[in-house]
Amino acid sequence: MAGACSLGLLLLLLQAVVTVSLPVIVVRLNKAALDYVSDIGKAPLQRALQVTISDFMDPSGEVLQSTRFQPHRVQILDVHVPFFHLKFLAGFGVHLSAAANFTIKVFRVPEPMELVLPVDLTADVHVTRDSIGTLVLSVPTCSSVFSPAGMLEGNNSTSQELLDLVQEHIKADLNNKLCLHVYGLVQDLNVHLGTLIGLSPVGPESQIRYSMTSMPTITSNYISLNIRAILFLLGKPILLPLHDAHPFVLPWPSGDEGAMATVGLSQHLFDCALLMLQKAGSLNLDITGKLNSKNNPLNTSVLGQLIPEVAHLFPEPTPVVLKVQLGATPVVTLHTSNSTLHLQPFVEVFAAPSNLALQFLFSLDVMVNLDLQLSVSKAKLRGSTSMLGGFQLSVATSNVGSVDMDQVYTLISTVFQKPLLDHLNALLGMGIVLPSVLNLHYVHSEVLVREGYVVVSSGFSYQR
Questions:
Q1: 100 near 81, Cβ under 8 Å?
Q2: 174: domain range?
Q3: Any idea what DSSP says for residue 314?
Q4: Ranges of the chain whose pLDDT falls below 70
Q5: How far is CA 411 from each of CA 199, 306, 459, rounded to the nearest angstrom?
Q6: Could you tell me if residue 398 is inside a domain?
Q7: What is the pLDDT, as a whole number, of residue 381?
Q8: Is residue 354 part of a domain?
Q9: Are 464 and 259 in contact (CB under 8 A)?
């Protein structure tokens, strides 16, 4: 018996692992993303190539007209990268090619010498996934090719012999250092890519964590990442079985192929997010009527005109409170160019006499369909809702006798609609963080709804 229970527990644990291991988001980084990285990467590459060159020593002491073996300081004054290009290597990663011009000064007697040394850099960057589910870059191959150096104006008196000696010294010194600094730049980038994983806040008591579920898929046009998203409430994961236990696959092509990124969001992500909101009680609200209010005439005097027993129990005007709870999990439906949100609130109606406990009047089962609009701001997916038809109301229980819904429908739906929409839109407007790294924002995003999933085509903006 104990063995059977242990086996059952193990199967449940394995099922939970399978449930959260399949991807619910697919992120494709397209060629435009590489172009953007190339553009913003020029400045970091220039800084990384500001290396230190060892002193130059003239073996004979004759060319530099100085004491034998006296060292002469060599300094890089400036590095300019006019060309920096990245392209995908199918099944491997990214190929880097760059051109850099080094302005170098040699301090010598009787006057310093300045020259410009062009260098072409190439490197292959391997893109993979580590054990904790984040992108990792490595550089298995890197090389530098030097072109002949040219003298700056005012150094025409320098002999070709001296220029050749200095150039050979600089090439020998830079040959390994440049690639070492490229390696260092990639390692810094790995630290930045590590911010993809980790907890990001969703609400006061909830978070979301992203990680990669498998090795990236790399073609000549894009790199595709399968992303697992786990929502947490009070530190506990929100788990739902994936539909048919199949991973979410984003069709190719999807969205705008010219965008930097194409992000596919599965139905499962929306289901988990709504379940989390329900479990947190975030979707519940109280709607309190006010006396002598035209905007919210929810009081026993108005209600008593429709339900005689209410007027009998409360001859003096008393505010009425609607306590709205979502017992059933909201359902989002994704059809091409159309997304809807279905709610089934349970509404309890109370009278609220001053200085007394709430007095139960009756309760309602409610069904409402809402149009769901999705948008992206910075790095968050946000939502807003509007009515799609009217409410369906039915009496669940009553403490005031028979309740004619034809009589109370207009009153209840009028005072219920605006607070409900305001509450939902405030929650959905907070949004959920999309997969991104630190300081990277989504810009010029377009959201398209497809059958069973959502596609976001977006650009990027990196801001320190």
A1: yes
A2: 30-195
A3: -
A4: 1-22, 58-71, 109-110, 153-159, 242-245, 291-296
A5: 44, 10, 47
A6: yes
A7: 96
A8: yes
A9: no
